[in-house]
UniProtKB/TrEMBL annotation:
This is UDP-glucose 6-dehydrogenase. One of its GO terms (molecular function) is NAD binding. InterPro entries: 6-PGluconate_DH-like_C_sf, NAD(P)-bd_dom_sf, UDP-Glc/GDP-Man_DH_dimer, UDP-Glc/GDP-Man_DH_N. Residues 159-255 form the UDP-glucose/GDP-mannose dehydrogenase dimerisation domain. It holds the Pfam family UDPG_MGDP_dh. Residues 43-138 form the UDP-glucose/GDP-mannose dehydrogenase N-terminal domain. Belongs to the UDP-glucose/GDP-mannose dehydrogenase family.
Length: 276
């Protein structure tokens, strides 16, 4: 019998997932009350629920915020669901939710999407990772089978999958900060940065991504993901007694660079206000 699928949250990630399912003739029901999609029966009747809601980071001292995610879980009216978290979450949260909501089985599936190529990235992933808890190991292959195929596919403990996402985004933040500093040096030496970049990016170990200096008209990293995820992993490391000094320096440099351009470093597109 086909699995009944519901997607909670129809933003960039949830919307792209829905459009992918449509290309595969898979019917996914949608639940997103702020957009008028508030039929709770699509939750009650679902076998598998993908949750893709914001996980902000706030600069008011509260830091990483899981309240949108928790509200989504608590909106599910009955038990026995396979819940696939696609929101970016700190390592350990999937396991903690499994303990707090034992009536469901939780997995974590990180997304690796770029906003400008979101549908292509969703349909043609370079990797597909499904993280499991002690209660959801048997569900991992089922969920993997629903997702787009990738050259690299791996089922791993949820905490590993969660850190994979932060590992990548924090590295991209470092790369953007480094590229911006090299841009300043190139200008000081009266060099053409674009020519310099063209010569550097052909090396596969460097790569072509995150070397452009002006993104959406401004310098530095910003937008939905990199600022909040960089701050969140710094917060986690501090709580674990690990000093991510290199990442902290990049974050401080980037904040100063963005503020110098008159940008709001809260980046509300990735960290919406708390009016749930």
């Amino acid at each position: 019998m086909p699995q009944q699928i519901t997607i909670m949250g129809t933003g960039m990630v949830g919307g792209a997932l829905d459009r992918y399912f449509q290309t595969q003739n898979i019917k996914a029901n949608l639940y997103d009350p702020p957009k008028g999609l508030d039929d709770v029966s699509v939750l009650a009747n679902a076998d598998v629920i993908f949750i893709a809601v914001p996980t902000p980071y706030y600069l008011d001292g509260s830091g990483f915020d899981e309240s949108f995610l928790r509200a989504a879980i608590e909106a599910i009216p009955n038990s026995g669901k396979t819940i696939v978290l696609k929101s970016t979450i700190l390592p350990g949260i999937t396991d903690r939710f499994q303990e707090e909501y034992p009536e469901h089985r939780f997995l974590f599936n990180p997304e690796f999407l770029t906003e400008t190529t979101v549908d292509y990235d969703m349909a043609h992933p370079t990797r597909q990772i499904v993280g499991y808890t002690s209660q959801s190991r048997k569900d991992a292959e089922l969920v993997m089978g629903l997702l787009p195929r990738a050259p690299f596919e791996k089922v791993v403990p949820a905490k590993t999958a969660e850190l994979v996402k932060y590992f990548g985004n924090a590295f991209y933040a470092l790369k953007v900060a480094y590229a911006n500093q090299m841009f300043d040096l190139a200008e000081k030496l009266d060099l053409d940065y674009d020519l310099l970049k063209a010569c550097v990016e052909t090396e596969p170990m460097v790569g072509k991504t995150h070397l452009d200096i002006f993104h959406k008209g401004y310098r530095g990293y910003g937008g939905k993901c990199l600022p909040k995820d960089t701050r969140a992993i710094i917060q986690l490391a501090e709580s674990a007694g690990i000093d991510l000094s290199l990442l902290k320096q990049a974050e401080a440099y980037n904040n100063a660079l963005c503020e110098k351009q008159g940008l709001n470093i809260q980046w509300e597109e990735g960290s919406p206000k708390k009016d749930l």
